[in-house]
Amino acid sequence: MCNVIPRIVSVTGISEWRDGEIRSQNDYLVGEEPLEIRIGEAAFNVTMRTPGHELELAAGFLFTEGLISCRSQIASIRFEANAKQNGANRVRVDLAPGVMLDSETAQRNFYTTSSCGVCGKASIDAVRVRGIEPPNTACAIDPEVLCRLPDKLFESQAAFSRTGAIHAAGLFSTAGELLVLREDVGRHNAVDKAIGWALANDLIPLRDVVLLVSGRGGFEIVQKALVAGLPILASVSAPSDLAVNLAREFGMTLVGFLRGRRFVIYSGAERLVAGVPLTQN
């Protein structure tokens, strides 16, 4: 998938107060622009996101929201010729012949803010994707390996190091190898971009992969991870109660407060096994 050159970071003049003095200087801001996702000729969804990897974002969104179930259901995905007109980017998705959107699911034409992927949905039940399979029970990771993942994620966050205001989602092997990292002002967008990458590379389901997110592990993040087949989801912050309940319902390993040599296991402790061979993948 090819993407337009993104405006991930911009520069602005600011005034900084420090130790009683005000100084003028330049600062970096994370980019945020609307992205319109179209299904054929019809506008389907508008989301606020950080520019970059838009085609992965669109594909990942359609997949994790249950609108498509596999890569082959997308005939083509591309930027429209006037994608930059008025600053509103547009991605067009054409579905494969015979692929029809479920009428109830297709009613999810909602505006998604960058801070909350659930905003605008009629109810929490609308984000439950039916037919989710429980993740791989044989997948396991050594807690020592898990503890090293946040540093690897942070070291690869180019935009965060400059702005301090962007979320990241990283897919790791159980040996601790970073497979892909995607950043976005919206944590759910970062996840969709990473899963969209996996979808484009025919890696779904991600049966032996760990997802690490830089923010909290909310309900929608758990839901998206389950759709992608991810058995282990870790976050550096806390999950919500609904996220924990969903993880327990489907047998996902959910870890929160992953910082230094400490983390909290909310579900699926059996996948955290000391001494797991690093060559298992």
List the topology elements.
Layout: E1 9-18, E2 21-30, E3 33-39, E4 42-49, H1 54-64, E5 74-79, E6 89-95, E7 111-112, H2 143-155, H3 158-163, E8 167-173, E9 178-184, H4 187-200, E10 209-213, H5 219-227, E11 232-235, H6 241-250, E12 253-259, E13 262-267
Parallel strand pairs: 3-6, 4-7, 10-11, 11-12
Antiparallel strand pairs: 1-2, 3-4, 5-6, 8-9, 8-10, 12-13
CATH topology of the largest domain: Cytidine Deaminase, domain 2
What's the Cα radius of gyration? 19 Å
Q: Tell me the series of helices and strands, N- to C-terminal.
A: EEEEHEEEHHEEHEHEHEE
The low-confidence runs, each spanning 5 or more residues with pLDDT under 50, are 1-5, 117-124
Measured by DSSP, the beta-strand proportion falls in 25-35%
Structure in words:
The chain is an alpha/beta fold. It has 6 helices and 13 strands. Strands 9-8-10-11-12-13 form a 6-stranded mixed β-sheet, with helices on both faces. A 5-stranded mixed β-sheet has the order 5-6-3-4-7, covered by helices on one side. Strand 8 and strand 9 form a beta hairpin. Helix 1 (54-64) packs across helix 4, helix 4 packs parallel to helix 5 (219-227) and helix 5 (219-227) packs parallel to helix 6 (241-250). The longest helix has 14 residues, at 187-200. The radius of gyration is 19 Å and the shape is flat. The two termini are 26 Å apart. Residues 1-5 and 117-124 have low confidence and may be disordered.
